[in-house]
Amino acid sequence: MKSDLRRRLERVEIPDEHDTRVRAWEVVERAFAEREPGRRRTPARPLLALVAAAAVIAAVASPPGRALLGSVREAIGVERAEPALFSLPTGGRLLVSSDAGAWIVQRDGSRRLLGPYREASWSPRGLYVVASGGDELTAVDPKGTVRWKLARRDVRLPRWGGRELDTRIAYLAGSRLHVVAGDGTGDVDAGGMPAAARVAPAWWHARRHVLAYADTRGRVAVYDADAGALRFRTGRIGDVLGLEWSSRARLLIVGRNALTVYGAQGQRVWRVRLPGIVAARFSPDGRRIAVLRRQDVLVLDVHRPRGRRTVFAGSGAFRELAWSPDGDWLLVGWPAADQWVFIRVTRARRIRAVSDVSAQFGGGGFPRVEGWCCPP
Amino acid sequence: MPGSGRDERAWVRGAQAGSASDLEALFRAHWPRAFRAAYLVVHDSAAAEDIAQESFLAAVRALDGFDRRRPFGAWLHRIVVNRAIDWARARALRAEVELQDGFVAGAERAAAPGDDVLRALAALPPDHRAVIVLRHLLEYTPGEIAELLELPRGTVNSRLRRALDQLKERV
Prior knowledge:
The structure holds 2 protein chains of 2 kinds.
Chain A: H1 2-11, H2 17-34, H3 44-61, H4 63-75, E1 93-98, E2 101-105, E3 111-115, E4 119-122, E5 129-133, E6 136-140, E7 146-151, E8 155-163, E9 166-173, E10 176-181, E11 188-189, E12 202-203, E13 210-214, E14 220-224, E15 229-233, E16 240-245, E17 250-255, E18 258-263, E19 268-273, E20 277-282, E21 288-293, E22 296-301, E23 304-313, E24 321-323, E25 329-334, E26 339-344, E27 350-354, H5 357-360, E28 368-373
Antiparallel strand pairs in A: 1-2, 1-28, 2-3, 4-5, 5-6, 6-7, 8-9, 9-10, 10-11, 12-13, 13-14, 14-15, 16-17, 17-18, 18-19, 20-21, 21-22, 22-23, 24-25, 25-26, 26-27
Helix pairs in contact in A: 3-4
Chain B: H1 5-16, H2 20-42, H3 45-61, H4 72-91, H5 116-122, H6 126-137, H7 142-149, H8 153-170
């Protein structure tokens, strides 16, 4: 019986066995490439970097090289940018994270460092900020006073949702999706299987606590945190860069080469192919979508997504994208120029730019815009 | 099939040093059995994929601190089987709604058992399935199973006996 049983167990046919292995290896390999602690680079990389740096130095040192560098400088960045952020072009406050930590920028341009946090997100009415850093999730007020802390391993991408006094925070602890009440109580591992991908979860602006998150198999799940149940799950979408609910109960799934919009009941409303997407966001009224690509910024009408308007374009690569709370302005980050560019997309187009952005947020890397929230 | 102990230690050492090919060797050696073990406990290929994949991800996350003197397979199987038992127990409690329209993945139900052993296993409680899988697929001794599942050895023996009796009746 025993050896017979072993043979039978080994012969049980499992559906999809080969594809399963291929898919799993892709996920494991990606996780391995992204792991940070103890990661050692292959010796070829520093060598390549040295060779590349030497080539750049040699090219720039030559007279034609100096001319080329000058032309690149001229092509990147908005001319007549302001030397510092003196004010925001419209109301609201920015939440920004940089190597130094999380910051709040007031409309008059004044900045306050909240603390040494890696990522942050506004509470629904902008009264608090939830921030992550290392192995802690922390809620702070806009002055940086800590309201509560929660210790969890490898906390990432917190997002605060809900209404009035009944709010929830979704975040990733490693690859697990967690949900905790806005007062820091009742933390639960909510994701089930498979694990969540490293994409910020998105709360629906509805009374129930419903959120969307991407899983490691390239699907997006919509989860009802009150019922503890999955409402629906999409088919495999591929690389998901971002998720957002509109105020009109539409779910935007941002992929590298396509935007997909779903309804709240799981019906797909439309899908538009667009190569080279970096980020996309619904306008506050849910009628438009701003799309950031490496070298241009488009605005689509949610009801006519194939008609699109280019509102800005430039060399180098753009990275950050945020709507102003009134829906009139877009903020675009331009790391190659070390600039923030504010683009008015309603009425006559206007451009305002601010240079030396990195230095204004403590130096180091180019800061990330986490949100442009409601006025205080 | 898993490699020799020496191969395995070399792959773990290589993966700790950042070698993707050594990690792949570990994956190739251990994925088939890890996935099969999970499937035989949960009887759902999507869930088994998730469980085995999650277990490998846990291995990747813990790789730097892994003690190379310990067998990688036993460490992985402990995670896989415990997660599979948890999943099978929790399945009835977790309501999942899959939409059936053309745009969403709807067909993710448990595979219909086409094999008498699978059907007989399905009739056992998850922790009984787990000891059968550990003993007869992964070939651990009852003492090792007791350690992997953190159970008294007597409990493992009695579960094995009862599970085998039930399987004999059905197969």
